[in-house]
Description:
CATH superfamily of chain A: Tetracycline Repressor, domain 2
Low-confidence stretches of chain A: none
Number of helices of chain A: 9
Oligomer: homodimer
Mean pLDDT of chain A: 93
Largest sheet of chain A: none
CATH topology of chain A: Tetracycline Repressor, domain 2
Number of strands of chain A: 0
Largest interface: A-B, 42 and 41 residues
Radius of gyration of chain A: 19 Å
Shape of chain A: elongated
Strand content of chain A: under 5%
CATH class of chain A: Mainly Alpha
Amino acid sequence: xxxxxxxxxxxxxxxxxxxxxxxxxxxxxxxxxxxxxxxxxxxxxxxxxxxxxxxxxxxxxxxxxxxxxxxxxxxxxxxxxxxxxxxxxxxxxxxxxxxxxxxxxxxxxxxxxxxxxxxxxxxxxxxxxxxxxxxxxxxxxxxxxxxxxxxxxxxxxxxxxxxxxxxxxxxxxxxxxxxxxxxxxxx
Amino acid sequence: xxxxxxxxxxxxxxxxxxxxxxxxxxxxxxxxxxxxxxxxxxxxxxxxxxxxxxxxxxxxxxxxxxxxxxxxxxxxxxxxxxxxxxxxxxxxxxxxxxxxxxxxxxxxxxxxxxxxxxxxxxxxxxxxxxxxxxxxxxxxxxxxxxxxxxxxxxxxxxxxxxxxxxxxxxxxxxxxxxxxxxxxxxx
DNA sequence: GGCAAATGTTTACGGTGGAAATATTGCGCG
DNA sequence: CGCGCAATATTTCCACCGTAAACATTTGCC
Lengths: 187, 187
């Protein structure tokens, strides 16, 4: 039996995280609540407390899962033998593509006030994501500055574009590759 | 009499916006609520409905006010006769300095779900802020891409830095000027 | 087999935004 | 001047949310 159906769920912690991800996909961030997650799993709304402490703990765990997915989106299909510039472009596009594919989750992942960024699990997942960009960052100038610059640019582009800020004529055509610093010099 | 004190406030709309700004400064974004604004002004929690419709309307108006302040932060003390590169740096630093000086307000300004970005007043204020960056953007490549790139980079830096993401050694020293694309070529 | 810890439930409470009915005021118009 | 309507604000009520405390059930270990 994968799960006894009475009283003890047996797998509640991951089930709640999965429920949260589903709610984000199907109903959006503003419908994501502790009670909604619990109800979807078929459990009382106070049950999550045992595993996550409070709602912030649950949302933080969901955000960490999101970071793992973001990491995968950047590295999936990334040819390690490709030239650095190409890997850089692919990682950046993976970042933005993930944000557009999962807008609600992506927003939660950066929602200070709902998520605890000091949580070690989340911090590790975020570091792993950033490391992808760092390893392929632009080469000009201070390498630390270059990687942070790429991160800022890609992250800002993802967020602003999610907010529809570029939906006016003359901006709609812009993609990450147009935005990344050190463009291929004369496109 | 600037305001009669009975029943009709007489100046409720701007008073509620001001109250919201005060709450953001003193208590933070998570303490900002429709009821808190109303209470601070000394009015019932349903009074704002007449002027803003719902809480989103109120928060959107506060965000628009924030955009106006952001615009001012970028242009204040901006010498129009200075070389473009210098004005660009000053505007970018004004952007980030504003975010750091008013973190709660800055977050609200970009909080999809609490703010209605299709509101024309807010959209106009945002356009005005962006125009400052656009007018001083980097010169290389497509000018539209260059201005959007600057915006993304500065915005991403402001948000990520507000989240303490750069608080680890090796990143703490980084400022906007290190991050802006097209660095002065050999710092 | 029995007891302690882990896991869930029930109930209750304060906070939040919104709807509906009601009260007060301002103001235009006779 | 005063009447009546529209604007403005209040009261009351409701649904939802997160949390705490007391309680129930189950697991697992000795």
